[in-house]
Amino acid sequence: MNPLAVWSLAAREWVRFVRQPSRIGSAVASPLLFWVLIGTGLSSSFHMPGGGRSMSFLEYFYPGTVVLLVLFGSIFSTISVIEDRHEGFLQGVLVAPIGRSSLVAGKVLGGSLQSLLPAALLLPLAPLVGVPMSWLGGLGATGILALLSIALTALGFAIAWKVDSTQGFHAVMNMLLWPLWLLSGALFPLTGAPRWLALLMEIDPMTYGVAAFRRVLYGPGAALGEGLPPGDLSIVILALVAVAAFSLAAVVARSRGGGRA
Asked: pTM here?
């Protein structure tokens, strides 16, 4: 792996991102609007099952909204793979004397930083809805979000490598990632769900990212209802998912078709 190539590609992604303020605004505005409207509308009827402490739906939905920011950012950032192919930049990188792993690492690093920034900016709002937050908790939460952003960006890279249009990419990502987010415990807790739905939530890898994020925010002593995966297990599974997603992206990048016009 070529460190210079990795950082150059990552810096290019970051420069393109900061030069397009509309991308930042759209990535942040949609999840925030989703959080305020749905959170406010359901707060009066929401009840945490399993003997958990009383909390509003705005508070419960806050971690899910932050994860949704990461999800949106990852989708938007990996569209650049398709754009680079159409503009000819990707073909130029593929014939350069660098390995495909450097290409993957650079694109994933740059894209994950893009998806991490809006989510990290939302963390200081946590105390406004009753979510406890300390400097140590903020650092831990940022680390969890970084792992999640790497996993989602690498997965998006692997899909974008095989898809030749932004319309097709959005269709595939929506079909795959929206169900993963909905079943992650971001919108409703695992406790109280029908058994078949609870089983889907348990095998959803994003469930463990959301669970790890919740535990870091609330601390080990917080009562969040029964059924939340253990914190250590959640972090380990999330890290394994990130490694697996990056490995998948590297394998896909070694296949043919990424540089087609």
From this structure: 0.85
